[in-house]
């Protein structure tokens, strides 16, 4: 199993980072999102929905 961290403070930066690692053939199967209470989880769902 390979693990690749995808980091970014802005949603667009995270999406770009995800697209870059997927372009190399990496297919994520599990994600863990750490966020502060002031950021709603709903902001992350569209980036990971398939």
Structure description:
- The structure is a single chain.
- The chain is mainly alpha-helical and 50 residues long.
- The chain has one domain (11-48).
- It contains two helices and no strands.
- The protein has helices at 11-23, 45-48.
- The radius of gyration is 11 Å and the shape is globular.
- The two termini are 21 Å apart.
- The model has no long low-confidence stretch (mean pLDDT 76).
Overall form: globular
Share in β-strands: under 5%
Structural class: mainly alpha
Question: Can you count the beta strands?
Answer: 0
- Sketch the topology as an H/E string, one letter per element: HH
Q: What is the CA-CA span between the terminal residues?
A: 21 Å
The domain count comes to 1
**What would you report as the Rg, rounded to the nearest angstrom?**
11 Å
Mean pLDDT: 76
Fraction in helix: 25-40%
Sheet with the most strands, sense and barrel status:
none
Number of helical segments with 4 or more residues: 2
Low-confidence stretches: none
Keywords:
50 residues, globular
